[in-house]
Amino acid sequence: MVEPKGSAIPAFRSTPMNTLEMISLVKLRLSEANVRKNDSNLFIEELAANIEAKGLLQNLIVVPAKKRGMFDVTAGGRRLRALNFLLEEGKLPKDHPVACRVLDIDAAEQSELSLIENVIRLDMTPTDEIRAYKHFVNEGSDLDAIAKRFGRTRRFIEGRLRLADLADPIFAALEEGKITLDVAKAYATTPNHDRQMMVWNELSDSWQGNNPDSIRRMVTHSAIRSSSPMAKLASEADYLAAGGKIERDLFTEDGGETWIDAEIAQRIAGEKLQAFATQIAETSGYAWVRPVLETRIPYSATEDLHQVHLEPAPLSEEEQAEADQLLETISALEAESEGLDEDDEVAAADFQTRWDAASNAYDALHDKPLERRKARGSDAPDGASGTREGGAPLSAPKPLSQKLVEELAVQRRDILAVNLASNPAIALDYLIFAIADTRSHYSAQGLGTSIRASSPSLYLATYPESPAHTLMADMRENLDLSWTEHDRTIDRFAAFSALDDDAKASWLAWCVAKTLEASMGVPKKPGQAGPEPIDMHDHLGALMDISVAGHWRPTSANYFDRVSKQTLLAHVTEVGGPTMAASFMGSKKGDLSASCEKLFAGETIVAPEVKQAALAWVPEAMRFRVLAASEPEAGDVGEPELEPDADELDPAEEQGAEHDDTVDA
Q: How, if at all, do strands 97-103 and 18-24 pair?
């Protein structure tokens, strides 16, 4: 990295000490007045390589140190670090002479000088740097020579030259500052211009247009990463042996690789998974095993599955006879306990041994986890002895009435509620946790609240895949999942409460997002089935200025093959006018569908305004309507009826509401 020359130097007070001297490297040290702190070690090795190749192109600025014979470097700290790096590597001697301008200035002026040195400078733009490297390549220089000339690594030069091969519109956007260097690197993950432009046309005007991760995912959607589960299962050796090709990613720290021929990797991984599934079926006794080559189980793989609750196997005649005998023994022991001498410890211990043996044998015979049967007349919990302190069994107290238990529970709930209502911070944590922690919805403990954020019911045979659906799943995996690793609900809640506000907000946004119901952007026609328009959805779309075209493009599979030819011609008329539509009148439906897919993907050579209109087009049903603020919501007629306050509900209705179970889809 070549340091800039010509840094502005302020007019300091007149002094006889303002001379250029050659000072031994060992006598130089960094001044505390140097303002550069955070990135002082960045690219030091590259800068050192540049100094080794070209020498020190700009002198250091120093002031005499308090220690006699030493000098503090006020401007040029990174150059000093690079020189010391060469010294440690044995490439420079300790007495190596360094050109320094010696000034006699106070601490305040030293800081001012350091600030000017680091602020008033203009770095080379990435595109200028790219052109410089490409110039030397065209002149016949190899990459190692260029790297040494500029003090860079070979891999850095390779990455910049990859950017030189960006598609023209993307390179122009980088040069004009419309996209960042990270965004350009994401597009350059592949050298395929067609794939770059496909993603550029889809994302450049959307909110994902400046998101390198989203761009990189779409650029490589037809390829897989070498670190992916599928690649690991297939193995690199088998993939290469089958003719697969690998492309290096020059813009990630781990130097990851992209496997271009995803279908080869899928075939190899699928064959291995099928072989493993066959082995499991043979050794486990399962009736069937269905392998799924996915990192997450798709809905289509589980839509026909349902949970089966197996009844316990009935006791055999011998087991039933043994159970009856054990019950008689237990009844006899209960009668014996009434006359047991509490002071006779030996007798009490013998009685306890016989009692435990009979009870344990009866429980083991039935072997019902979580439903252990107790001896008659005892309500002691699992693990309790059921005896007095002296050894005799206790008589079971009469249980509370059901009505009293319910009344106490409601009063206890109200006490908790009034305190929770006074603690908004805890209430907010509880709210987000309740809609995020799906594990507790199926446990015996539960969450203790009616709050849910369940996904709406889906009545489609297969789920329609789309970039937005995949991105939603990726967003779920990028949330902070550390709190979900705990088994107990209260431990998960404690861990969730410890998250920072941003992590909690991300969970809240994701949970709310997954509750959205399906709706359309146009009212249904009479007799037409399907989702109705929801005004609130259109209002949210307007608030977020959503561009549907930036997230979804129509294809033959997801739209054009499924509408009539007249509808297709009407769509072509919308973007290209009646003349263009007339040119397709004689086409067959299948050919017209394929032509529409290319036209609305921007792959057809047409006038710029037609291409722009086609890339922005989506079916009317997919659009978010623009509603006036005073426009009543769909279905509103007259004054709405007010819902009664909670304390005005009939007790029977309130009890019914409390026992209403919400199924979490």
A: antiparallel
Q: Which single residue is written with the structure tokens 């990851």?
A: 256
Average pLDDT in the 272-296 region?
A: 80
Those residues whose C-beta lies under 8 Å from the C-beta of residue 664, and which sit 6 or more positions away, are 438, 441, 442, 452, 454, 455
pLDDT in tens, 5-33: 333 333 333 333 567 888 888 889 888 76
Q: Is the pLDDT of residue 614 over 90?
A: yes
Q: Quickly tell me which residue has 């030189």 as its tokens.
A: 164
Specify the DSSP element, H or E, that contains 279: helix 262-284
Strand partners, 21: 100
Which span out of 9-13, 193-197, 539-543, 634-638 was modeled with the highest average pLDDT? Answer: 539-543
> Rounded distance, CA 229 to CA 143, Å?
34
User: How do 28-30 and 71-75 pair as beta strands?
Assistant: parallel
Average the pLDDT over 281-286 and give the result. 80
Q: Is 241 helix (H, G, I), strand (E, B) or coil?
A: helix
Say which DSSP state 72 is in: E
* DSSP state string for 379-416: -PPTT---B-TTSPBPPPPPPPPHHHHHHHHHHHHHHH
For CA atoms 261, 263, 269, 275, the dihedral sign is negative
What letter represents residue 230's amino acid? Answer: M
Is there a contact between 534 and 634 (Cβ–Cβ < 8 Å)?
Answer: yes
Number of CB atoms found within 10 A of residue 268's CB: 20
Q: Report the chain's C-alpha Rg in angstroms.
A: 38
| Cα dist from 594 to 560, 582, 590, 606, whole Å | 8, 16, 6, 16
pLDDT in tens, 489-509: 888 899 999 999 888 888 888
Total Cβ atoms within 10 A of residue 171? 19
SS (H, E, C) 348-383: HHHHHHHHHHHHHHHHHHHCCCCCCCCCCCCCCCCC
Q: Which of 310, 317, 315 is nearest to 364 (CA)?
A: 315
For residue 72, list its beta bridge partners.
29, 63
How would you label 347-373 residue by residue, b for 16+ Cβ within 10 Å and e otherwise? ebeebbeebeebbeebbeeeeeeeeee
CA–CA dist 278, 286 (Å, integer): 10
Token pair, residue 578, equals 């009646």
Lowest mean pLDDT among 231-240, 309-318, 628-637: 628-637
Pairing of strands 60-64, 71-75: antiparallel
- Distance separating alpha carbons of residues 460 and 467, to the nearest angstrom: 18
- Calculate mean pLDDT across residues 357-375: 65
Q: Give the confidence band of 123 by pLDDT, cuts at 50, 70, 90.
A: low
pLDDT classification of 595: cutoffs 50, 70, 90:
very high
Query: What would the pLDDT profile of 171-184 be if each residue is shown by its tens digit?
Result: 888 888 888 888 88
